[in-house]
Amino acid sequence: MIAGRWRDRCVAAAALTVIWTLLWGSFTPLTVIGGLLIAIVVLTVFPLPPVTYAGRVHPLGVLKFAGRFAVDLVVASAQVAALAFRFGSTPRSAVIAVPLRVPSDLGLTLTAEALSLVPGSLIVEVDRERGVLYVHVLGVSDLADVERFRGEVLALERRLVAAFGSPAERTLCRENR
């Protein structure tokens, strides 16, 4: 248990150091050491609750997720642009509750972040206990659009679990299609 916590803290420190280095825009020994020191101070002064990652990165799943995510970004951008330039009609929107199949904290966070990056959708609220995302969506005109969007969110979750999920999460996602 303690070894896992130290591993998680080292991973968090490394990630914060990489972010620090990227923010400075230069990869020098001073920048890396400074980032590592800042990371250690931040993790000591502001301890985060333990977030364990039971899965592993699946390269093929990551490629599938990244490719489909890029397509979703382009298509959604075009759809939002079309809604913005459509004269004479007011775009309809809705707040839709989407219960996820794998309601872990990491799964909720990854799905919510990926969904918020796509134009036309925004996370309004997250119910951690029940594993439900409440999403504001543009361009919804009827119940069929609502169900289509729910299916798209669940497909996004399935791609994320295929890319980063544990074997148990992957099985759960496949069983609850």
From TrEMBL:
TM ranges: 12-45
InterPro entries: Cation_antiport_E
Keyword line: Cell membrane, Membrane, Transmembrane, Transmembrane helix
Subcellular location: Cell membrane
One CC-aspect GO term: plasma membrane
GO molecular function annotation: monoatomic cation transmembrane transporter activity
Membrane topology value: Multi-pass membrane protein
Pfam family, one: MNHE
Family membership: Belongs to the CPA3 antiporters (TC 2.A.63) subunit E family.
Identification of the protein by name: Multisubunit sodium/proton antiporter MrpE subunit
